[in-house]
Amino acid sequence: METLIAALARLAAAGFRDSFRARGDWLYAIDAGLAVAPERLAVAEMVRFEGDSDPQEELVLLALRSEDGGVRGTWLVSYGPQMDAESDGLLRRLARGGT
Q1: Contact (Cβ atoms closer than 8 angstroms) between residue 59 and residue 77
Q2: Between these two residues, 58 and 35, which has the higher pLDDT value?
Q3: pTM of the full predicted structure?
């Protein structure tokens, strides 16, 4: 099973070098300094992780790219009961709008 660090390194080597963070109604690409509506992003890959020692440590790593391909990065999101409402809403919008 691939570790989180290995997945991040693999995706960075594939061009997903930026990091997205949830900010209100937007996903913010840190390096690009750009706020992007989730509907304007496509999910290129999704990797799910479960904690070895604690089932509450559930994470999803998403490789995201903008419609024009100019911004490519990753977003790490908790899922399950510990997911915050902001991330949940953005994830739902991403799932509806990404191509």
Answers
A1: yes
A2: 35
A3: 0.87
